[in-house]
Amino acid sequence: MGMGIDPRRLSDEDLLRELGQLHQTRTETLLHGSDDALRNHNERMSELEAEYLRRYPQRHIDAERLREGARQRV
C-alpha cells in the first residue's frame, strides 16, 4: 500500500470522507502540485476508489450518467 491508512482498515464513513477530500484537492494538485504530489494523489485516489468499488460492487448507477441517459437529455 502507498500513503495513509490502508483503505481496507477505514470505516465506511472514513473512506467516504477521504475520497471527498481527495476529490476536493484534485484540480489544485493537478494544476500546481509537483510531479511527486500528483503521483501520490493518483495512487491514493486509486487505492481509495478501488476499496469503495470492492465494498459496493452493486452501487447505484444513475441512468443519466450513462451514454443512453445523456442522449435522452438532449
If you had to describe this structure to a student in words, what would you say it looks like?
This protein is an all-alpha fold and 74 residues long. It is built from 3 helices and no strands. It has helices at residues 12-32, 35-55, 67-73. Helix 1 runs antiparallel to helix 2 (35-55). The model has no long low-confidence stretch (mean pLDDT 90).
User: Separation of termini?
Assistant: 43 Å
Shape, please?
flat
Give the overall average pLDDT: 90
**Using only CA atoms, what is the Rg?**
15 Å
Uncertain stretches of 5 or more adjacent residues:
none
Please give the count of helices: 3
Domains (count): 1
**By helix and strand content, what is the structural category?**
mainly alpha
The strand count comes to: 0
Task: State the major sheet.
Answer: none
Strand content of the residues, in percent?
A: under 5%
In helices, the fraction of residues equals: 55-70%
List the helices and strands in order: HHH
InterPro entries: DUF6158
Pfam family, one: DUF6158
Write the layout of secondary structure elements.
Blueprint: H1 12-32, H2 35-55, H3 67-73
Helix pairs in contact: 1-2
InterPro entries: DUF6158
